[in-house]
Amino acid sequence: MPIRNQVIPGALSWRIGSKLVTTLSDGYIEATLEGNLRGVSKLEAAELQRKAFRSEDPRYTVSAFLVESDDEAPILIDTGMGQFGGAVAGHLLESLRLAKVQPDEIGTVLLTHLHLDHSGGLVNPAGEPVFPNAQLLVHEAEVKFWLAEDAATSPGQNHPEWVEPTRNVVRPMASRLKTFKDGDSVANDLTAVHLPGHTPGHSGFALQIEAERVLFWGDIVHMPAIQMAMPQAGVDADSDPKQAESTRRATLASAAASRTLVAGAHLEFPAFGFIQRAGDEFHFVPELWVSRI
Ligand SMILES: [Zn+2]
């Protein structure tokens, strides 16, 4: 029998205090250094990829995160690429099925930002909401950046061609859209952390249960082998490259110093672990996964 040639779903869970945190694979993005990398030379970046045993052309894994507890409907952090995923991404719902959660059970969708690899899964190709019972929460600056009338020409908007498709995935959820700002409580034990630079409203979500803490982020890092070693490395989609760099440095440094667990949409699947600091460089150390939750 020929071996399978298909996209496979993935869902791995960890218990954090009274909650269950699950990384859901959406798939991956085939990128190129020329197309995506900014701020360091291609030569340096290629060498870092080689040292880390990665192909020169990066593959970003795309993950979303599920937070479940006994006292609240499941919370989804980001939605994957949905219809924009091409052949190898947009598989979030298959992974959600592995976690034994139905889309209509999701009570809250928190978006780190509105780029389509995070928001594309909000609606199906017919334009209908995929999570019909969910409230949608997005940082107020992010909503303005993409939905304001002059969004296509606003400062930092380096991809005006993404404005219309972004509006199309948010519009069906408009009546259930709520904005937040830095420090707001977005769900039980979950607080918004504004991490601007990649986009104006790019945010993380800090889960704090007694002494246990997890920081969920979107696009602090896309190419871990490159950006952990050289945090000055940015990506083409950064709306404010300088601010993205300083946010990346500060976020990595603080996660390392406080030994905080981090969960990042483009950290390599299962994208859940710690940041270790060595001088000016950082390394990602995956959390241990065991087969019982
Ligand atoms: Zn992204």
Brief overview:
With 293 residues, this protein is α+β, with helices and mostly antiparallel strands.
Q: Strands, helices and their partners?
A:
Blueprint: E1 11-16, E2 19-30, H1 33-36, E3 37-38, H2 42-51, E4 59-69, E5 72-77, H3 92-98, E6 108-110, H4 116-119, E7 135-139, H5 140-147, H6 163-170, E8 177-180, E9 185-187, E10 190-194, E11 203-209, E12 212-217, H7 224-227, E13 234-235, H8 241-258, E14 261-264, E15 272-278, E16 281-286
Encode the helix/strand succession as letters.
Answer: EEHEHEEHEHEHHEEEEEHEHEEE
Shape: globular
Number of helical stretches of at least 4 residues: 8
What proportion of the residues form beta strands (DSSP E)?
25-35%
Radius of gyration: 18 Å
* Ligands present: zinc ion
Helix content: 10-25%
Q: How many individual β-strands?
A: 16
Low-confidence stretches: none
The CATH level-2 architecture is identified as: 4-Layer Sandwich
Number of domains: 1
The largest sheet is: 7 strands, mixed
Average of pLDDT: 97
| CATH class categorisation | Alpha Beta
Structure notes:
There is one protein chain. This protein is an alpha+beta fold. It has a single domain, classed as Metallo-beta-lactamase, Chain A (4-Layer Sandwich). It contains eight helices and 16 strands. A seven-stranded mixed sheet has the order 1-2-4-5-6-7-8. The chain has a seven-stranded mixed sheet with strand order 9-10-11-12-14-15-16. A hairpin with a 2-residue loop joins β4 and β5 (72-77). It is globular. Zinc ion (ZN) is lined by residues 115, 117-118, 218-219, 265-266. Zinc ion binds at residues 115, 117-118, 218-219, 265-266.
